[in-house]
Amino acid sequence: MLWALALQCTALVLLNSAGWKPCRCTCPAIEGKVAQRHLRRDPLPPSVHRSTPGQRVRNPSGVHSDCFIHNKSGEGGIMKPWAALLGVLVFASAAAIASDKSDAMAVVHQWVDAFNKGDGKTGAAQCADGAVILDDFAPHVWQGSGACATWYRDFEAFVAKAQISDPSVALARTHHLDVDAGYAYLVTPATLSYSKAGKAVAEKALVVMTLKKGASGWQITGWSWADQ
């Protein structure tokens, strides 16, 4: 994934700036510098690296010295890799959350696209079994096994009775999307557009949706539609 490549590049840049010179690198930001240096293999064991000629310093990371060689001396030099590592971990956490948010929103958009195409089967496939739905037409609550498929059948009956045609949903800019430990909580404005008696109608609403990440990816576990 792109974020994983960015993580690798960031880690190498941080370690490079902390004084650890990699022998091999795929990061464009520092590979030019590495190409100018032909660092020889250090025969020291994995827990040791050379800081200056004749001086041996414990390598707290345990990385073999033929991977990273520290070429700076001075007080506090040993702590720099730890600071770099902390930066990498923070970046990794942020990247993972960003990836989860993107994946969760992709499922939301797949559901919207399916609804707009009149494809209830594909829309229901985005839902977890046992989802809970609240909407503004009777019976207002759907829950349990097959709730999303049942909701869609009831919606089709509702629009036919109300002489509504061409319904479609458009999501506005998300108010917020919280992702934590495999669960997501989305709040976003939406607009339902349709035709009735030959006239175009647009209804504003607020959608609250929950999702859960399982073995097969993200699935919708519930949503509510509130007219505005």
List the helices and strands and how they pair.
Blueprint: H1 2-17, E1 20-22, H2 28-35, E2 48-50, E3 56-58, E4 68-70, H3 79-116, H4 120-125, E5 127-134, E6 141-143, H5 147-161, E7 164-171, E8 176-180, E9 183-196, E10 199-214, E11 217-227
Parallel strand pairs: 5-11
Antiparallel strand pairs: 1-4, 2-3, 5-6, 7-9, 8-9, 9-10, 10-11
Helix pairs in contact: 1-3
Write structural notes for this entry.
The protein is an alpha+beta fold and 228 residues long. The protein has 2 domains: 76 residues, no CATH class; 126 residues, Nuclear Transport Factor 2, Chain: A. Helices cover 36% and strands 34% of the residues. It contains 5 helices and 11 strands. The strands form 3 sheets. Strands 5, 6, 7, 8, 9, 10 and 11 form a 7-stranded mixed β-sheet that branches. The chain has a two-stranded antiparallel ribbon with strand order 1-4. A two-stranded antiparallel sheet has the order 2-3. Strand 9 and strand 10 form a beta hairpin. Helix 1 packs antiparallel against helix 3. The protein starts with a helix and ends with a strand. About 22% of the residues have low confidence.
